[in-house]
Each structure stands twice: as C-alpha cells, then as structure tokens.
What we know:
The complex is a heterodimer of chains A (135) and B (383).
Chain A: E1 2-11, H1 27-47, E2 50-55, E3 63-64, E4 73-74, E5 84-93, H2 96-107, E6 122-125
Chain B: H1 3-23, H2 28-45, H3 54-72, H4 76-85, H5 95-105, H6 112-123, H7 128-134, H8 139-154, H9 164-176, E1 179-180, E2 183-184, H10 185-199, H11 203-216, H12 219-222, H13 242-256, H14 263-276, H15 285-299, H16 302-316, H17 318-326, H18 335-345, H19 349-362, H20 366-381
Helix pairs in contact in B: 1-2, 1-3, 1-5, 2-3, 5-6, 6-8, 6-9, 7-8, 9-10, 9-11, 10-11, 11-13, 11-14, 13-14, 14-15, 15-16, 16-17, 17-18, 18-19, 19-20
Amino acid sequence: MAKYLLLKHYRGAPAAVNNVPMAEWTPEEISAHVQYMQDFADRLKQTGEYVDGQALAPEGLWVQYNGEGRPPATDGPFAETKDLIAGWMVIDVDSQDRAIELAGELSAAPGAGGKPIHEWLELRPFYGVAPTVTE
Amino acid sequence: MTAQLNEALLRGLTPGVLGILVRRGADFATAEDAVQEALIEALRVWPEDQPHDPKGWLVTVAWRKFLDATRAETARRRREDLLEEEPAPGPAAATDDTLQLYFLCAHPSLTPSSAVALTLRAVGGLTTRQIAQAYLVPEATMAQRISRAKRTVGEVRFDQPGDVATVLRVLYLVFNEGYSGDLDLAAEAIRLTRQLAAAIDHPEAAGLLALMLLHHARRAARTTPEGELVPLAEQDRSRWDTALIAEGVHILQAALARDRLGEFQAQAAIAALHADAPAAAETDWVQIVEWYDELAGLTGNPVVRLNRAVAVGEADGPRAGLAALAKLDSSLPRYTAVAAYLHERDGDLATAARLYAEAAQQASNLAEVAHLTRQAARLNASR
C-alpha cells in the first residue's frame, strides 16, 4: 500500500558489475534480457503489485524558461554529463522491504554471458495521501 | 426508490447475503462472483419492481447464479450435494454470517493490502473499479489483488472463531487511507465498523468506532480549501461536527464502563479530550498524558511515546517534553518535527527552523512537506 518508482538509467548511475554494452551481447542474450523484464512485469501484474511502466528513449532534453518573449533554452551546460533515464516502473507494495526485494530482482536481469548485470536501480517512494490521524 | 438509495441498501445487505451462501457450502470465490452478479441484477430490476424482502430476493438470485456457475464448471456431483443441503427458504439471522465474513476477509494469511481490498469488495459491496480508483492503481491490478486474496482464503475453514483484533486493524487501515476519487474510504470504514460494532459485543470494536467518529468530526477543519494542513491548535472549532463528537463520546463512555481497556479505546479517549476542549488552551493535557501512559502500557508502540512527549510538552512545558523526547529513537517518523515544535515553544527559533526544514525532507506526504517547510520559512523570516 505504498507506491514506489523504479528507475533505470542510461547514464548517471554507478556502473553495473557486468558492464558490457548491449550492442556487444549476442542476440540471444538480448532476447533473454528483454524476456526477463517482461516476465518480471507479468509476475507483478499477477500479484496485484503492478501499477505502470514504460521504456524511455535516450534523447532526453533539459528545458528551461529563457525570459519573456524568448524560446525556452534546451540542454544548457548539461549536455554531456546529464543523467538519462532509460525507463521506469511503478509498483504498489505492502512495505519498503518488498520494494527493495523487487528492485533487487529486476537488477538481476541477465546480460552478457547470461550473467546478471547487477545494474544500479533507483528506488523512490511516492508521497502518499495525507494520513487522517496525526494529532 | 432512487438509484442511490438502492446502492446504499445493497451495500448494507451484501455481507449477509455472501455469508449465507458460504455457510450453505459455496466456495468463497464463486459465491462472491455470484453475489456481485445478483447486485447488478438488483440494480437493473429494483427500480421497476422493488421486492418486499430485498435480502431474501438477493439470496435467491445469488444462489441461482452460484449454481449456474458451479454447473458450468462440471462439478455436478458437488452441485447435487449442495442442492440436497440447501435449507428451506425463509428469514435467516444475519449477524453470524456477516461476522464470519469480516473475519474471513481480514484473515491473517492475507497481506494488509489484500485484506483491505477483499474487505471493501466482499463486506463493503464496492466494485473493483471503485476500490482501484480509491487506491490509485489500475483496475486490472486491483482485480488481481482481490482474486488472489479470494484464492488465499478459499482454503480457510469457516467454522473457526475469527480474530477481532485483525478485523479492527484492517478497518483502521481503510479509515486512515482518507479519500480520493468518488469514494470516501473514511466514511466507508465508519459504515463497516458501525455494522461490526452492532454485530459483536466487543469494547474495542466500540472503541474503534468512537475513535473514527471523533477524528472524522474534525475533518472539515483539518485542511484549508487549498489542501493545506491546519494544526489542531489552529483549527476553527466551530467547524467540528458536534453531533459526531457527541456520538463518539457516548459510544466511548459505554465501552470504557465495561472495564476492558484496549488501545482503540485509549486512543479514542485522547481524541475525546481534544474534542471536548472549547479552545486549544483549555485542553486537559494532564489527563491526555495519563492516557498516553495507558496506551504505552498496552502497545509498547514507540510512536505512542513520541506523541506522549508532545503531550508532556504541553502539560509540563517544552523542556519536559524535550527531556521525554531525548529518551526515544531519533529515527522514528515525525521525531524531528516534534523536536522542532518543542524547540520553538522553548524559544530556540534557530534550532527549530533548522529542524522543521529537516523534518520536511523526511515527511512522507506532500501536505506535510509543505506544512513543515512553511514552518521553517516562517521562523527564518521572523529572525
């Protein structure tokens, strides 16, 4: 009964242990990776813990208001160093322990050599609704 | 009869009907589906042709739906057995069936979120869509949660006595979820707790009902129209619902008179003392501290000791409150916010401002974040 955001990053997170670029995997390894993520989402749908998830393109922009009558500025000083989000999944679980367990499972998706990639995932709790009883 | 009236009546009858089916030997999951179908049928038929005995009508239709479903699943032998066992039609005592349903839906084998969902669906008679909207999850997610919960309790023997404490905890979880969408979960929790308290003679069921009523009575004053939190001391007490307060106090007094104190009665007693004060300054903090001592003895819950430190701060001054706070684990939720408040009362505005800002970082909901940030900003602006 607490929602969490699981964030996968293209860039910005610490390097994964099994850090071979996907383009250097075998096609079967890529399929196994994609299948693992699909199975993971399907399983969460079955347990009633899945809320939503999407993959994101790597070409994200930073955008900023640039003053009256001027077009918004894009990408400013960040172009080379910015964090890039690869995708996200929202889960609704009973406890933070459960959220950590699931994030750990997702991080174990297979990569090169069929071994878990151990990538770092960001786990962020949603702000909940205001509890009634605080006084 | 209007559609709203029909819906309210149906929701009140749902648990009794489902309980009768299950007692007749229907498995829980199929029975629950059959009752939902009967409810849909009722919403269609009743506006034209209201039955004299709505509950009897629902039982008959739901039982027929159940038999249809069972037949469709080739469980012929089982169906024949059930038909033989079917008792003669006629009015049945409602309370035992309904009660068993509460116990089943809050069964300890379920996770809290599953127990909440199943209770709202089976006892509350709400649709899966309504429950999903209230908890801001997709309907498919909630449907899975409910059907898994039904499978989990499908194996539970129905003749065991239930655990009242577990049922009360589930209802309290529903109440604390507040409201969103078109469904007011607090009101729904009150309705179900009322029904439960009427069905069983249990001081803690009464205590929980009193607690909910006393909190609910203050709801209109608890936030501004823009959704900002208003602390208890600053609430416009003329906006408290005095009828609900009177009812809550009355129920609480009857429960306390039975001399079987439990944590919900103790919490309700604290809420009643707040509700009783004509102005914040006239709050009987000494008595509130005594109730927190009772509560701490009953539960050993560290959050109770945190709240007690606030009460001590009011009863004996902020220094005493800070001394009580110093004995607690600083990683408790809202510890920093309490520390900030007590330091402000003690006149140490710089420390208070820093702690409010820190507490805002740790808060778990947006209204609280905004409130604590404003407290920090207010103190920073005044220095």
